[in-house]
């Protein structure tokens, strides 16, 4: 079906509409063989709070952006190559229901659908697109992914020293390796994580010690395993005191 749609006028028209909704600031989306599979509004768990974002699933990329005018205008376009994506379902808890993780080497975050059926459809379509891409390219699924950041609201004290209380003066920071909310003294070091940034990024002392001794796998699993058991927990190299969606995400 995807192959039949690839060169159809209807598909070209639909992609053109999406391009126009992002305006001049968005990247061109029309390329040979690209098909728009589906679209919809998902709730993305951001650093400060959950926020509605418009998502577009293509057969090779996942695109999302801020909603300015529904169905008419979006901004802050983000494009994620699907061959680098892995997804994991997360358990319902409180108001956060029907969610799953979208994990890539550069950025990982949680999203939530309005219904269980919608969640199932999104996950099935994403998995199918990823599977088809990997099958065609002969590549293997990515086994490296960025940490999902713990939202600010989940930590009143530093998650490493368990002592420093956060205040307007003592700001929250995020370790780029484990995603924990940490205080300044516990995250003074920088380390080069090539998949996330071309320059050294902030990491906590715990992860720095592991990375320095080559125990990167342990550092990675310390965050991802705990998140898989609890959805109360969003990545890019952004300013620590900015919401990841209100600035550069």
From TrEMBL:
Subcellular locations according to the entry: Early endosome membrane; Endoplasmic reticulum
Full protein name: Pleckstrin homology domain-containing family F member 2
InterPro entries in UniProt: PH-like_dom_sf, PH_domain, PH_domain-containing_F, PH_Phafin, PLEKHF2_FYVE, Znf_FYVE, Znf_FYVE-rel, Znf_FYVE_PHD
Residue segments, region Disordered: 220-249
Keywords of this entry: Endoplasmic reticulum, Endosome, Membrane, Metal-binding, Protein transport, Transport, Zinc, Zinc-finger
Record's bilayer topology term: Peripheral membrane protein
Molecular-function GO terms, alphabetical: phosphatidylinositol binding; zinc ion binding
Acidic residues composition-biased segments: 238-249
Bias kind Low complexity: ranges: 221-237
Main subcellular location: membrane
GO BP annotations, alphabetical order: endosome organization; endosome to lysosome transport; protein transport
Gene label: Plekhf2
Keyword Metal-binding annotated: yes
SMART domains on file: FYVE (SM00064), PH (SM00233)
All copies of domain FYVE-type, residue ranges: 152-212
Domain PH: 35-131
One Pfam family cited in the UniProt record for this chain: PH
An example Gene Ontology CC term for this record: endoplasmic reticulum
Organism name: Notiomystis cincta
Keyword flag Endoplasmic reticulum: yes
